[in-house]
Each structure stands twice: as structure tokens, then as C-alpha cells.
Amino acid sequence: MDLFDRVMELSQYGYFCSQIMAILMLEMTGEENPGLIRAMGGLNGGVGYSQGCCGCMTGGTCLLSYFTGKGEDTAFEDANHKPAMAEFTRWFEEEMTAEYGGIDCRDITKGNPANRVEYCPQIIAASFEKCVEILQDRGLL
Fold first, then answer.
1. Residue 111 above 90 pLDDT?
2. Based on the number of CB atoms within 10 Å of its own CB, is 79 exposed (0-12), middle (13-18) or buried (19 or more)?
3. Distance between CA atoms of 76 and 32, rounded to whole angstroms?
């Protein structure tokens, strides 16, 4: 099954953008973490369904931070943490603004929830691929 088909399958199960990205990453690393998937649901629909910043952007930064962020009291964030997030957010803002006019859900969908069916799966797939590329380029995946 290719990436786009898997995105579509997960959306049919009722998952949204950031949750789908987390599931894809967990599948790729052979991990399971239902708590992470539930928590990522708070980013769906533009952060708590507010139609604000797209869950692919916020979800993508969470995925990168999963690999690069501080996770223990005595640990430090990876040196790649901020540069990886900066690269992703810059890419996302440039791509989504050029294609859809902004990075908020309301911009991307033009205020029409029906547009999610057309636009969101390809944005999810592209965002996930960009996260993987960033992690691979830094030897983190």
C-alpha cells in the first residue's frame, strides 16, 4: 500500500491530520503508542478544531521533536532540534501559502469543510514525507 492509500485508509477510520502523521511514524519505527495518537488529536482541525494553524504543521513539529526533543530530566535536546523544526516550518509555510494562501485550516479549506476531503490527504502525505526527509538527512531515522 502506498503512502497516499494509507493516509486515506486511516482517515476512513476517523483519524485526522496530526494523528495520521503520528500513526505513520509509529508504523515506520515499529512502535505503538496509543497515548501519543490520542494526544495528537488535540492538534486536529487547526488546533482543537479552531480552524487555526494546520495540524500537519503542528503535527510535523511534534514528530520531529519526538526524535530530537528533551525527554528526560537529565537529557538535552538534540543539536538538530531547532534546525529541523525551522526547516520544516519554513517549508510548510512556503508550500501551503503558495498553494492554498496560508497555513491555517481556514485558509487551506477556504472555509469549506468539504475541501478537506480533496486537500488534506495530499498535505498529510507531503508533510509526513518532508519530516522523514529531514530526519533522514540528519541521520536520525
1. no
2. exposed
3. 24
Dihedral, CA of residue 132, residue 77, residue 93 and residue 60, to nearest 10: 40
Give the DSSP per-residue string, the chain.
Answer: --HHHHHHHHHHTT--HHHHHHHHHHHHHT---HHHHHHHGGGTTTTTTSS-B-HHHHHHHHHHHHHHS--STT----TTHHHHHHHHHHHHHHHHHHHHSSSBHHHHTTT-TTHHHHHHHHHHHHHHHHHHHHHHHTT--
Q: Is residue 123 very low, low, confident or very high in pLDDT (cuts 50, 70, 90)?
A: very high
pLDDT given for residue 101 in this prediction: 95
- Does the predicted model carry a pTM greater than 0.90? yes
Length, in residues, of the chain: 141
Write out the three cell numbers for 44.
486536529
